Amino acid sequence: MSKLIKNGTVVTAVDQYQADVLIENGIITQIGLNLSKEGAEIVDASGHYVFPGGIDPHTHLEMPFGGTVTADDFETGTTAAAFGGTTTIIDFCLTNKGRPLSQSVQTWHQKAAGKAVIDYGFHLMIAEINDEVLAELPKMIHEEGITSLKVFMAYKNVFQADDGTLYRTLVEAKRHGALVMVHAENGDVIEYLIKEALEAGNTDPIYHALTRPSLIEGEATGRAAKLTALAGSQLYVVHVTCEEAVQQIAEARNQGVDIWGETCPQYLMLDQTYLEKPNFEGAKYVWSPPLRPQYHQETLWTALKNGQLQTLGSDHCSFNFNGQKDLGLGDFSKIPNGGPCIEDRFSILYSEGVVKGRITLNQFVDIVSTRIAKLFGLFPKKGTIAVGCDADIVIFNPNVTRTISAETHHMNVDYNPFEGIVISGEPVTVLSRGEYVIRNKQFVGTVGAGQFVKRDTYHAASREVKPGKEESVKGGATHV
Ligand SMILES: NC(=O)NCCC(=O)O
Ligand SMILES: [Zn+2]
Ligand SMILES: [Zn+2]
């Protein structure tokens, strides 16, 4: 059935205006004043914003890590995402050395298919470059629609790749039009600092932060930027936490390097002191890179405001406090790294960013949706409100305040790192390709209705959005 969203304020990355939005067969077919359509269901959006659905470029659902598996799978994770105003996620497909990439991708499809309630894509981890990987990569990128490659510069002896692998990945990405993503920390130095701390008897969660100084996040970011320049390739730095990394990205962009940066709500809102909470509660706040001293938060907000950082990912990687985080009791290095954020990413950015005057409403849409769609080959099918786009839409009430709590969240995890924080605004109704997923704050979606999205290559979709270049609408993804 067609739907007509009436009397809302449509907000995109560039516009804000009163209009009705007509949806037919899952696609936006008309936008204008006083629209009518016989037989269409009227969806009243008076007093509400009509935003494009959020796109979360960084999730880890049902992912084995740290001797356990993340608490949210594709059903609970995407349901929580939808409650929070996100209509597409891009999850990280892990790979193993010696295993064909196609098998790893198959594993990830099996985790997601029949479970996701919103659309999803995958990034592909690159653990090694050899003849088999080189032979498989073109198919992954051009046929499977997995157009972003992830290299870890940390987690030694687990995920970490060496600089040669990063460089060769950058070269291949340039050749095939993929976007390389890096976790930028110096894993070799961190391993040494952890060993030193444990030998000195320093086992509490705070030592997780103290053994991963911001200086070496900056160092790794700068190294990755320089390798990108050398390869003439393109790079997206995930979960940027600190001034040193922001400076490296800004410097590289000034020199014309095609480099982008993502931060996450936890780095904007929480600081290193959270790891000092008593009774091992600091373990709830163990992310890598770690939470930083508070002054870094202002740097990150300023970087979002002035465009040195461009996107917000959740890095949703949920572990229960009881039964998972406590694997690290007595040894901080065994605390599973990561936290739950898929549900709160969108509203935190609205409340802390727009309402507090740190970014504009248009910047909010850009950072939480549009820019991500452009960088990751989803635009213009997703990431904006325009005729011809998927009707992935959030009807958002800006006139309420609420308190974030594990008591009321929908993530499958026993704590919320933002517990007690009062925020303004709330997604009320969320549509995925024109179908209700959330209606008047109730879940009415269908488990398994989410579709895998084959994404455009970086070259096809984003050629026009490189630093210093004019932007234009290009490309678009396809569902399978
Ligand atoms: N960030 C984190 O601590 N956990 C998730 C894995 C990663 O993104 O590094
Ligand atoms: Zn990471
Ligand atoms: Zn992550």
From TrEMBL:
GO molecular function list: dihydropyrimidinase activity
Keyword entries, A-Z: Hydrolase, Metal-binding
EC number: 3.5.2.2
Cofactor or coenzyme needed: Zn(2+)
Residue ranges crossing the lipid bilayer per the database entry: none
Sequence ranges assigned to domain Amidohydrolase-related in this UniProt record: 49-435
Pfam families: Amidohydro_1
Family recorded in the similarity comment: Belongs to the metallo-dependent hydrolases superfamily. Hydantoinase/dihydropyrimidinase family.
Protein name from the UniProt record: Dihydropyrimidinase
